[in-house]
Design brief:
Oligomer: single chain
Strand content: under 5%
Radius of gyration: 23 Å
Number of strands: 0
């Protein structure tokens, strides 16, 4: 097959991958993406100038593997794509995407050092675009904040969350789901660091947005009620905490199939508060009911 025909076939394969993915046929899309990568690899053996087609195929293949939770293979594919960018004139936007995707793989695999480095490199590239891709920067800042929090670097976590907040609020306004996520993450950061008053403010802000946001899912709303309840409990505001726990559990119970863990934690904390208030029988009742519901979903 001539290189011209190989290039045409590759274009058709890439278009088919997108079509299969959009149609929800992930396994077929992965198979076709693998074929596209193999075709592109053969193509550059005789025509190195086709490296950009290989990079595009690799990025697409890596994204699909990551979507299917095959992080090990996705990692090797993204690394190959980055190697190709060293000799090809890949544009900064594509390079930023690949770096951020590989960072997310390292993040998932709990390898913070390479993840942080790649997130920072991707942020720099997205910032240098004309115009800058600010929403991508905001999302990556939020990811960095979570990584720094997990590694107990409070100042860096707070700094990145604040930068993420500023961008989301400036571009998307004050009532959007992305902003609520960052407020929630800031709340958990302050809570874990013992700044309970600040945590309460952040969780109240996240809850207010989620209550007014038409695109929010019930699990996130229940999470906000639960996080606020736990914070109020730490502040000694037990009556308000009880009300928030009841609301959280009611919401999370309706979406139990989506998030068993948050429901279980909320019920456990609710029962603990009841015990602290001397209501042992009520605490036992809460625990038994939670266990029964969780068994049904097992």
């Amino acid at each position: 097959m001539s290189n011209k025909n190989k290039t045409t076939v590759l274009k058709v394969l890439i278009e088919r991958v997108h079509s299969l993915k959009n149609g929800g046929k992930l396994n077929e899309a992965i198979r076709t993406a693998q074929t596209a990568v193999d075709t592109a690899r053969r193509l550059i053996e005789t025509d190195p100038e086709q490296a950009l087609n290989l990079i595009t195929s690799l990025e697409l293949f890596g994204d699909l593997l990551r979507e299917s939770n095959n992080y090990a293979d996705a990692e090797s594919i993204y690394i190959e794509a980055l190697e190709q960018t060293k000799t090809a004139n890949s544009d900064n936007e594509q390079l930023a995407r690949i770096k951020s995707s590989l960072a997310s793989v390292y993040d998932f695999n709990q390898s913070p050092e390479p993840a942080i480095a790649l997130y920072q490199e991707a942020i720099e590239l997205f910032t240098k675009l004309d115009p800058p891709s600010e929403l991508d920067v905001a999302n990556l800042r939020n990811n960095l904040g979570m990584l720094y929090k997990e590694n107990e670097n409070f100042d860096s976590a707070e700094k990145n969350y604040m930068k993420s907040l500023e961008i989301f609020e400036r571009i998307l306004g004050q009532d959007n789901a992305e902003l609520a996520v960052v407020y929630n993450n800031l709340g958990t950061l302050y809570y874990s660091s013992g700044f309970f008053a600040q945590a309460r403010e952040m969780h109240e802000q996240a809850l207010e947005i989620r209550e007014n946001c038409t695109l929010i899912n019930s699990t996130d709303l229940g999470q906000s009620y639960a996080n606020l309840a736990t914070t109020l409990q730490q502040l000694g505001n037990n009556e308000d905490a009880l009300q928030r726990y009841k609301k959280a559990i009611s919401i999370l119970e309706d979406s139990l199939s989506n998030d068993r863990e948050t429901f279980a934690i909320a019920c456990s904390n609710y029962a603990l508060l009841m015990r602290n208030l001397g209501k042992k029988r009520k605490a036992v009742s809460i625990e038994k009911r939670a266990q029964k519901l969780l068994r049904k979903q097992a």
